[in-house]
Design goal:
Length: 280
């Protein structure tokens, strides 16, 4: 890099807004080397008790295991973040999930997420990011996108990065994992201001690479239901990383595994060190 370019970089940095700097600082805590394994743990709200084995029904136990395994960040609802703060504070960055829906609702109303938390409360508890879901293609897409836009705008004031759970879902979405559909959902997510995208794997390294390359923000794969063979999940994670993905946001494939810590550490090895799943 020449002296001229150095100067240009300095000028850009000098003009950066405080919140722009804040976003950069916090993002670098979540994705330390540009990659990350975020432990998703909002299932108690989204899915209910059926997701948890009896020994994992207490959220404190699960958060303890996640912190012990060394995941890069936790995605929690406000209440669980508060109830476990003594475990994660100062050790692992937290992303507060600000929208949700319970599975107790009538099925046709489950395609709508609503607000369950606020940016200011996330800031107050020292969170490094916030997250919200938009079901792209759902009948309630307009309300969810409007809510997301409000979250982006509030987060902007505090320099908090916003992760979107970009989930294509609705009567016109035949295949949620289709490349075109995932690409469209990712692009729409960028258009409304997402800093990080969490979305579905598209089935191959090539197709996921085209998704990753179509947006100017980090793309992480959403975990999904637990695979029978843990290696199968690790192979998918490897494919995501080979495609240029920034990592994974994973819940069930870790907390429903017998070997919680071992599984989380294997995922970390693949994401950060490019480990070969067959050798883990
Ligand atoms: P998983 O890795 O367990 O799929 O977690 C990711 C996640 O987005 C959670 O944050 C959320 O609770 C869940 O999946 C929603 O799953 P779905 O809407 O498919 O039931």
């Amino acid at each position: 890099m020449g002296a001229g370019e150095d100067r240009e970089e300095c000028v850009v940095m000098a003009l950066d807004s405080c919140s722009g700097i804040g976003k950069r600082v916090r993002l670098s805590r979540i994705l330390k080397d540009g990659k990350g394994v975020v432990f998703a743990f909002d299932h108690g709200f989204e899915h209910g008790p059926s997701d948890f084995a009896p020994e994992r029904s207490n959220p404190r136990k699960v958060v303890e295991l996640a912190v012990e395994s060394g995941v890069d960040a936790l995605m929690l609802t406000r209440g669980v973040a508060q109830a476990t703060a003594d475990i994660w504070a100062g050790r692992v960055p937290v992303i507060v999930k600000l929208t949700g829906k319970t599975s107790l609702r009538p099925p046709d109303m489950q395609m709508q997420q609503y607000r369950i938390g606020f940016v200011e409360d996330a800031v107050a508890m020292g969170a490094d990011g916030v997250a919200a879901t938009v079901y792209w293609g759902a009948p309630g897409e307009d309300a969810m996108a409007e809510e997301f836009a409000a979250i982006v705008s509030e987060s902007e004031r505090f320099g908090l990065p916003v992760m979107i759970l970009a989930y294509p879902r609705g009567p016109s979405i035949i295949e949620r994992h289709d490349e075109y559909i995932v690409k469209y959902a990712s692009r729409a997510s960028v258009e409304i201001g997402a800093d990080i995208i969490k979305t579905h794997y598209t089935g191959s390294t090539e197709s996921f690479r085209r998704v990753v390359e179509s947006v100017p923000v980090p793309v992480l794969m959403s975990g999904g239901a637990k695979t029978e063979d843990p290696k199968e999940f690790l192979r998918t994670v490897k494919s995501v990383m080979d495609a240029g993905g920034a990592g994974v946001v994973v819940g069930r494939n870790v907390f429903q595994s017998q070997d919680f810590v071992g599984t989380a550490r294997a995922i970390l090895e693949v994401v950060h060190k490019g480990a070969d799943p067959e050798r883990l």
